[in-house]
Design goal:
This protein is α/β, with parallel strands linked by helices. It has a single domain (37-295), classed as Aldolase class I (TIM Barrel). The chain has 9 helices and 10 strands. Strands 1, 2, 3, 4, 5, 6, 7, 8, 9 and 10 form a 10-stranded mixed sheet that branches. Strand 7 and strand 8 form a beta hairpin. The radius of gyration is 18 Å and the shape is globular. Bound molecules: iron/sulfur cluster. Iron/sulfur cluster is lined by residues 12-15, 17-19, 21, 29-31, 33, 67, 117.
Length: 314
């Protein structure tokens, strides 16, 4: 029987918000998403970690809206929960057609960005591609505000999990992302991802990821204790063998430019302290984003060449 992605949206409890709203009729859940394929961009992306972007690129599907409300969101043009700022509603056929067009350029990886509130639609896309005999490496690029139960339904479908671990401090997660239980929820979610995929990132002969977990952490200015504790929790409660991607690209967007703490970029001293802690914890697998990245990495979904931005990892 074909997969009916609408069933799980009738009484939506996909993510930890557990709104129990009928997304077939309305957009009144926390994420303000409905049952459509509301997507900000489907494009080639060359700026992910080297194992993901590879020599060519990854095909990324950027879902609109979000189940977090990060005041500093770098993808704010499509994630803000005002109705349809930029998200474009595709049909399933149009999404699949656009993806296959990009995969036909020789691209092997397909990333879903901010999929937590669009998991049924994401599954429908994957099944439709599989029906056409397409089996790209599927990357689940998430903020980690995911329910373990929902993640279990993805076992066998996702090849590479790419979770953020944003906060170890619930006061910060409440203040900046409206989710005081984020640290606990995200840690459980990441443990489930590691249970499914293990701690080894499997690469093919060209160095492209085929299976595994890469945990991202974005350093916030003035909050390196949050970063250090987040890395400690990963090392002690998940594993020191897992791949980490430490990101320094934070840049204050207009909403927070005057904020006393996060109204600036991360200093070299802050960055160096977090890197030193990462090394002392034995977290040697992964990538460090160059400190200067904030000077040139600014996603812009209004640009016609929105697929061309990059942010480097070393
Ligand atoms: S996916 Fe959206 S509507 Fe569903 S529980 Fe989460 S925030 Fe609420």
């Amino acid at each position: 029987m074909p997969y009916d992605y609408l069933i799980e949206l009738e009484n939506c409890a996909l993510c930890p918000r557990e709104c129990h709203v009928n997304r077939l009729k309305e957009r009144n859940g926390y994420c303000e998403a409905d049952c459509s394929f509301d997507i900000g961009a489907i494009c080639k992306h060359t700026g992910e970690e080297p194992a993901l972007s590879g020599e060519k690129a990854i095909c990324n599907v950027f879902f609109a809206h979000c189940n977090l409300r990060c005041s500093y969101c770098q993808n704010y043009q499509i994630s803000r929960n005002k109705k349809k700022i930029i998200g474009r509603e595709y049909t399933l056929n149009a999404v699949v057609s656009k993806i296959t067009e990009i995969l036909d350029e020789g691209i092997d990886l397909l990333g879903f960005v901010s999929p937590s509130h669009f998991i049924p639609q994401m599954k429908a896309i994957i099944y439709a591609l599989n029906e056409q005999g397409r089996r790209p490496v599927i990357v689940y690029n998430t903020n980690s505000y995911d329910k373990v139960e929902t993640l279990k339904s993805l076992e066998g479908l996702i090849d590479v999990y790419l979770p953020d671990f944003k906060y170890s401090n619930s006061k910060l997660s409440k203040e900046f992302s409206d989710a005081d239980n984020y640290p606990e929820i995200a840690l459980k979610a990441i443990k489930e991802m590691v249970r499914q995929k293990g701690t080894t990132l499997k690469l093919n002969e060209r160095g492209q990821a085929e299976s595994g977990v890469i945990i991202r952490h974005l350093i916030l200015p003035n909050y390196i204790r949050n970063s250090i504790e987040a890395l400690r929790q990963i090392a002690h409660e998940v594993s020191s063998l897992v791949h980490i991607s430490l990101m320094s690209q934070y840049y204050p967007l207009p909403d927070v430019i005057n904020h006393p703490q996060i109204g600036r970029t991360v200093t070299k001293d802050e960055y160096d302290k977090v890197v030193a802690e990462m090394q002392s914890l034995g977290l040697f697998r992964g990538w460090l984003q160059e400190h200067e990245s904030n000077e040139y990495f600014r996603p812009d979904f209004f640009r016609s060449d929105a697929d061309s931005y990059q942010h480097p990892f070393s």
